[in-house]
Amino acid sequence: MKQKINLLICCFLLISGIASAQTVAGTTQAAESDANKTKTGATEDVLANYFQLAAKSITSTNSGVQVKLNWFALNMQSDRYASKNYLNSTWQRKGEFVGFGGVNSWQGGFNYNVLNRRDTTLANYSEAYVAYQPEEGKITQAAIHKFESAINVGLAESLTKLASDLFQAGQPVTDLKDKINTAKPGLLQGLPSDGGYVSDIQKALNDAINAHGANGPNLPAAVTDAIAYDVPFLTEEALSTLINFHGSSQPGNRPFTSFITDQQVTDLNKFLDDGVKNNKVLHNALGANTLADVHQAIEKKYRLLIQKVSRRPLLTFGYLYTGGTGKVLDSHTGGLTYIQSFGGTDIQKIGQLKASLTDTLTSSDPKGVVRNLDRNIIAFQAGYNQVLVYASKMSLAELNIALEEDRATSGYIANADKSKFYFDAYFRVRLPQTPWVKLNLKYDPKKNNLLGLLDFTYNLDK
Fold first, then answer.
1. How confident is the model at residue 79 (pLDDT cuts 50, 70, 90)?
2. What pLDDT score does 358 carry?
3. CA-to-CA distance for 199 and 161, rounded, in angstroms?
4. What is the mean pLDDT of residues 128-143?
5. What is the mean pLDDT of the segment spanning 433-440?
6. CB 208, CB 227: distance < 8 Å
């Protein structure tokens, strides 16, 4: 009993934030999904959102399959998207493993974001929500406090009647949850806590049945006490969900008609909207007159902030080991890649500066007979990526132009240049369901040689 009382106190303190928190979580998830879609192919090349599968260099003999796996994808927590867990896993979303398997070679390595300016959840959550969540919580708490008492009475009577009928039948009950769903559709919200509430009542009921058998006396007080303790929790959850429906731009169907009347719904909605109108922060700062206005204004603010954050720089450090046979030499490559977008939040066809600096250790024997690591090559590439086509909230076509210079600082090869200069370019288009087709071009002006390679990349965001 003491445990139930403590649980009741804790839930009372937390219930005021359930409605706004659930709405925030839904808004955040939708906005994050859209944010991932708006990322350019160039950005996804630098750091994958979640999982990336690419067929590399399809038109060459060095073709193979590359996999990028964000470290967050390895988080096996069932509630990893819950606010606290998600915020505590920032370091996971900043890194990825890289693997490649080809006919003659394989690769393994990682990339890690050394700047923390691109995590839209962290950057925007507090700025978009924290200022308004307490104000909305005050209104929802007041609404729940005002309307729950009348609902509790009728709901307790209904559940007591159900329990009394089951008690008189005298048979142990194993499916009370199903019976409650049938008698009072929409009462159980499908939350993890539902099982605890139902099991409390079911245990008290079965204890009474085992003690008295069929056709026992009136329903024992232990059962009615369990119902009295659990009903407020169930009512608060139902009212929180109902408040979410009212605050949503797409409310959907209301599954509470079995225990909340239409008049109570009308009165509740009016109470909420009046609370918003009379709240200086929500009404004056957001220009909101209804709870739905509040959520729409916050979502708009959140999405604008996502666009702002997406322009911020991204700098990754990466390491890649290459192993192979024949002329494919073993190598160690480490380096930095930088990308930054330009353009205001109202500009969809953004431009991006992209630069990379890498250092590769490999053998100086082009035949692959000697496989030591006496050759060092430093490569620098800088270019500009432009979104050419933007529709359906995402980039559909991009063009990248870059300059590249590779310089050997040790392990020189006879009859080979110490440095090489290239013009690089690629053109990519997005196909349905977010895969990219990318044509890479590398032109050596000294030898007048043009190399073209084709990649196919698919990104999974969750």
1. confident
2. 98
3. 17
4. 84
5. 87
6. no
Task: Read off the pLDDT of residues 244-265 as tens digits, 9 standing for 90 and up.
Answer: 877 665 555 566 778 888 888 8
Band the pLDDT of 368: cuts 50, 70, 90: confident
pTM across the whole model: 0.70
CA distance 6 to 1: 9
Residue 11: band (very low, low, confident or very high) from pLDDT cuts 50, 70, 90 = very low
User: What is the rounded CA–CA span in Å between residue 16 and residue 451?
Assistant: 62
